[in-house]
Amino acid sequence: MFRFQEKRFCYSVQPAYNRSKMTRSRVSMKDVAAAAGVSLTTVSDALNDRGRLPEATRRRVRDVAEQLGFQPHRTARSLAKGRSGILMLSVSLPESTPGSAVDIEFFVQLMSAASGAALHRGWALVLAPATGSERSVPVDFDGAIVVDPRPHDALLRLADAEGKPVVTVGRDLENPDRLHVDNDHSAAVREALDLMAKAGAERPALLTSEADSSYVQDCIDGYNVWCTTRAMTPQVVTAAGGLTQGAGYEAARDFLTGPKRPDAVFTTLDSLALGVHLAAQSLGLDMPHDLQVATLSDSEAARQARPPVTAVDLNPVATGKEAVQLLIKAIEDAADTESFLVPTRMHVRGSTGTASPEAVSD
Amino acid sequence: MFRFQEKRFCYSVQPAYNRSKMTRSRVSMKDVAAAAGVSLTTVSDALNDRGRLPEATRRRVRDVAEQLGFQPHRTARSLAKGRSGILMLSVSLPESTPGSAVDIEFFVQLMSAASGAALHRGWALVLAPATGSERSVPVDFDGAIVVDPRPHDALLRLADAEGKPVVTVGRDLENPDRLHVDNDHSAAVREALDLMAKAGAERPALLTSEADSSYVQDCIDGYNVWCTTRAMTPQVVTAAGGLTQGAGYEAARDFLTGPKRPDAVFTTLDSLALGVHLAAQSLGLDMPHDLQVATLSDSEAARQARPPVTAVDLNPVATGKEAVQLLIKAIEDAADTESFLVPTRMHVRGSTGTASPEAVSD
DNA sequence: CTGTTAGCGCTTTCAT
DNA sequence: ATGAAAGCGCTAACAG
């Protein structure tokens, strides 16, 4: 239950910008040219540092432009150059996941870092409409970043159709050679399993979401390789219900009360781990003694849980920056761009047993 | 401590889009006109539903366009119409706050909702560079949303300078009549104080961040009015160190060990409340018995804390949507736009004592 | 070293 | 009911 405020919800005011409505019409390059007594070309060259003008003219023109308060008209420039300066970014979650990508810390960090990196290099980044959304992209764009691509991602297909460069975060399973940024999830899983094994785990399980992303498959591969090496019987559980704590909880209630209960579990997302955490508590299992928990993707929630959850930091900030950098490179000259693997970090915390001496909790 | 992966960090692949490099050059309206045997004007009119063509021609032209796979060139349209279709959004945090706005759930929700609402209506939303950032905005925009405006917000000044409409979230204290979206924070504070008083609070304090935002001032006003009405001595504490849990913790350690320790505290942001929460626990104070805590702005962290924190949901999603709607209206016709107050919701949880019967925890 | 000119792809008067 | 033509503000050949 809740109560709404009883007060007025609306009232009226005058927009502030109305007051200075005598907006002097934009200063154009033509105006600058006239004022400086040169041609349009010269102004363009001076403003864009095209080195064919003597420093003197360049300076003079720039000064005039500054004094007139000239601001370049980006749209006109875009039209003339055939480049909009806009990058699109889409994150498509599995159908089954309620809520949106902003509920997942990894995506928020990545998105924010990507936007900042783009701006820093003079590009603008626009979030793409959720897949399946009514209309398509409302602006011209020069390239796209597709996070965790799924078979029929709208932005991916649109970019491909228009021949525009794409960088994916995580591999495009339908086209694995496509330019991408990724982590070595398989290695991360094996590292975490080693850690838990050292602390006594004998039956580690893997809890994943639906396996339609490359990172989930990599985790499964890494887990299977590890189990094979150790001659252990793998137990892979797929949580139904998307990337949520609830999905993790339901799955965990299930396998934690079944026969051959695992004594450790690695999850492919922090929200799943949090669900396992909750299930373990509700079953009266002690972490890490009765059950060790480790997960892919670090988050504030993983840090705040009691005990805090051991997690692999995927470095979404570096990932976002790198994706932007790669995409810009691909746009500017398709040559010499190569996919990139972002290093991960393991944060050992209370949800797993004590690890080897060099890996201490942060 | 942590360990980096030892593996290869990079390897090279061929960008996928290179393979289809024989990109058929965009289909333009001219092509459509030729194919349909009509003029450019007619195509334009048909495609934009300008009602001067008989339904027959309109259909025919549209069919041809569709068959040719025509996609409008947004940039060209923008140049001709003098409107870019782009909205800017900036969030400026207090100088003292480390990290970025994406660490604050309110902003993330607002931003995501705003972006979605813009897209839904055919506009694109671009995040503005952090204030004080090197270069200015890399695209032409038609209007701006400025969240929690501060005295010298770069985007605010830029928009004003170019005579572009602005909607602020929270009032612009230097120009209170400016179009905005806001909550009735003063009423929310009083409601929370009532709640805590009913549960026995006799010395409620107010913990705020630096008071340079309208919402902080509103909280202070509401608090003072409430105290005056009840003939209570107000105790307002300003946390140093920005909008962080650490800042809340430090401030709370201080006033919780001083003379006349408050038995309840209202904070102006969830991270501050979480800091108070931590301080109370470290001092062995029981919540809600020894200390009641309530805060502005609900969050996952407030819900997950033990005990969970009573919080005012500011409805950032509605706020973001409304801001976009208002801004578009202001861009399209400056008339009849009015500021808007978004209703809030109180979520009563374990950090405060039992409230009146109709306000039950969710 | 600098200017002239023709677009970029669309919208929009103004004719017919 | 439809078309011709002049831009929108900038870039980029191509001259000189």
UniProtKB/TrEMBL annotation, chains A, B:
Keywords: DNA-binding, Transcription, Transcription regulation. The keyword Transcription regulation applies. Pfam families: LacI, Peripla_BP_3. Residues 27-81 form the HTH lacI-type domain. Coiled coil: none annotated. One of its GO terms (molecular function) is DNA binding. PANTHER family: LACI-RELATED TRANSCRIPTIONAL REPRESSOR, LACTOSE OPERON REPRESSOR. This is LacI family DNA-binding transcriptional regulator. It comes from Streptomyces endocoffeicus.
